Amino acid sequence: MKKKLLAICLAGLMGLAALTGCSRAAKEESMPAETVQETTAEAAVEETSGIKVIENAGEDNDKTISVRIVDKNNPALPGRVPEKVRGIYISGPMAGSPGLFQDILDDMENTEINTVVIDLKNDEGRITCNIDSPIIAEIGACKNYVQDIEALIKTLKDRGLYVIARVVAFRDPYLAEKKPEWSLHTADGKLYRDKQGMAWVDPYCKEVWDYLMEVGTIAKEVGFDEVQFDYIRFSTDTTMKNVVYDEERTQGRSKTDVITEFCQYAYENLASQGLFVSADVFGTIIGSDIDANAVGQIYTDMAKHLDYICPMVYPSHYGPGNFGLEYPDKQPYETILGAMKKSKTVLDKAADEDDHIHNQAIVRPWLQDFTASYLGEGKYISYGYEEVQQQIQAVLDAGYDEWMLWSAANRYHLHPAEEAAAE
């Protein structure tokens, strides 16, 4: 059985005060500081830049504790080497189609792209390759799009690429059907489904958290550099008003409480294994209490517990009037510039109010490389090379230097690096 991993933050180098975690996890798994200090004398201790790993700790010598040292010398990324990401998304079926994926890789040559974000757990809740895990095998979650994920990742890394595992979190119709006791329900006892018929697992359910940590651990084992959680939120459908929550699970916590706690839990368990941890969030939650409370995502709180926070600032996601623009989708540069400046303002204000005690995740936005014709005539434009470059330039002009392109169809408009630099 895998050892449980528990990580903690240490403000400065004054010593270990206590193990921390999300409130429920802390009650179940944490030890008093005195216990940690007593066990570390006999435990094997390995220290790297900004992180101390203590093996064979705990009463039964069955815990590996990763102590994150946070100070001016170790600000955010302990023991790991970050990459300035310029990436694209790749679906499971595309990753498992050697010829088609090779065409994309060839198109990436001599461009700025240095990263691929590959579905490991997709929107249907399926694991996109065969992996060795009892709980995943129990429910038959694997759908073998990629025949040999380790070989694929090695090939990508041989090309100098940084490889991120996309893990869809709480919208998981497959897990919800297989484990209904872990899922959201309506008053009549039926599984909750959104307007697309998708069932959701319960973000308050600790078993769901641990299932996602299992997927994250597998990501590390097969060679991914980072785990990026998507749908780390509640459904936005108005039908959510019909959901009845289990009070024993919620324990008086709000949606925003539990999503922030999950971020902390994920970071504690996965960063200590050497993975970077990131999360996708709605761009519209930045500075909006209404949107944030609806989905459970508070931008500034989540940023305290992640390496990277990835706002989906697609121009098509903003309604008429946002940033003073009639139709934001038709003005990609202005929309992205407005969204990213708002991000900077909100995070800077939070840091000042927090007296800069907590670190903040690096902001790495998702940009739009698709045409949103569903917006209706006169409200959108076709997106191609020019519109993609305008968005990238807006990110740079706002003071950020990382970005990723989203196309569900994996069709990208990539400029050669020298042309992009010239523009």
Give a description of the structure.
The chain has 423 residues and is α/β, with parallel strands linked by helices. It has helices at 23-29, 33-40, 92-95, 98-108, 134-139, 149-158, 173-178, 206-222, 247-250, 255-270, 289-295, 299-302, 332-353, 385-397, 417-422, and strands at residues 4-11, 45-48, 51-57, 63-70, 86-90, 115-121, 127-129, 142-146, 162-168, 185-186, 226-230, 243-244, 276-282, 308-312, 362-363, 366-368, 403-406. The strands form four sheets. Strands 15-14-13-11-9-6-5-17-16 form a nine-stranded parallel beta sheet. It is globular.
Write a concise synopsis of the structure shown.
The chain is built from 15 helices and 17 strands. It has 423 residues and is of the alpha/beta class.
Q: Which structural traits does this protein have?
A:
disordered N terminus, 33% helix, 423 residues, alpha/beta
Q: Beta-strand level of the residues, as a percent range? A: 15-25%
Structural class category: alpha/beta
Instruction: Provide mean pLDDT, rounded.
Output: 85
Question: How would you describe the shape?
Answer: globular
Rg for CA atoms: 21 Å
Question: Separation of termini?
Answer: 54 Å
Return residue spans where pLDDT drops below 50 for at least 5 consecutive residues. 1-54, 63-77
Would you report the number of β strands? 17
Number of helices: 15
The biggest beta sheet reads: 9 strands, parallel
Strand order of the largest sheet: 15-14-13-11-9-6-5-17-16
Helix share bin: 25-40%
